[in-house]
Amino acid sequence: MSDDIAEAFGHPEGRTRALEGLADRISVRDYRLEAEIGAFQAERGLRQGLQFDAVVEVAAQAAGDDVDAILSYDRITEAIGAELSAARHDLLESLAEAIAARILAEPLAARVILRIQKLDRGPYALGVEIVREKGEAAGEAEIPAHRVVLLPGPLARAPGLGEVLAGLTDLPLILVVGPADLPLPAAEEAEAARRIGLLAMEQAAWALHGRLPELVPVSSRTELDWGLRNGQTGIWLPSRLVLNSPSAPEEIDAATLAAWLADHMGAAELVSLGAPVPVTLVPAREVPL
């Protein structure tokens, strides 16, 4: 029993010794960062202290002194930083899975033991610990080439919209709909105004879905990816992805968000219907409507 307790509460490096087999390993201990994380509304906009401890078992290499021939410590810390920058996570568990997948994508990494702790939730540390092996960590299948289509709100009732969209379906589509041309409720606080703007876009999306039910409302990255893999024309409900993505723009404007989404999703093209194309990093063109 004492060995079990020591293994459970010891450093992840001790776990590797308890597991079968011998392997070379590198470790990063007590790596502390601040990030926004948490499922509760009170945790939105709040940066919390996190501590990361990782041990990575690596494939044995011939002796040498070339830093480019090894899995370096920097690759572990870069995997942590890249995931914190890529997405906002509600749960430590999902953050740990994503970081483990990034580490195990390294050619020399064979197994990772990762512990993440929240440091600011009380007079204690709250944490999770996972063990993942190469080929076991959750990975994302590549999504196919696709288009992001920007539809300004005032054009959502254009009579030829269905035909124009049908002409673009040689690739899967994600439709970004601007809000209706109506005044929005006033808000003195910036975050409240941002959410009102997102909800206005979602109202417009649902209204268009009611008119063209073949457009499938999608909100999460999982729904977006699944729809693209299945040739679906999705109509984007932006709140979830925008609020959970550190790289999302603060400005809630359909054109700005369409340009960001096209870059974020790696779209092959951004098409703007009946309006000038926004500044974007992907190929873009205007299509009359």
From TrEMBL:
Listed GO MF terms: dihydroneopterin aldolase activity
Domain of life: Bacteria
Alphabetical GO biological process terms: folic acid-containing compound metabolic process
UniProt xrefs under SUPFAM superfamilies: Tetrahydrobiopterin biosynthesis enzymes-like
The Dihydroneopterin aldolase/epimerase domain, residue ranges: 26-132
Name of the protein: Diguanylate cyclase
Organism listed in the record: Pseudoroseicyclus tamaricis
Lineage: Bacteria, Pseudomonadati, Pseudomonadota, Alphaproteobacteria, Rhodobacterales
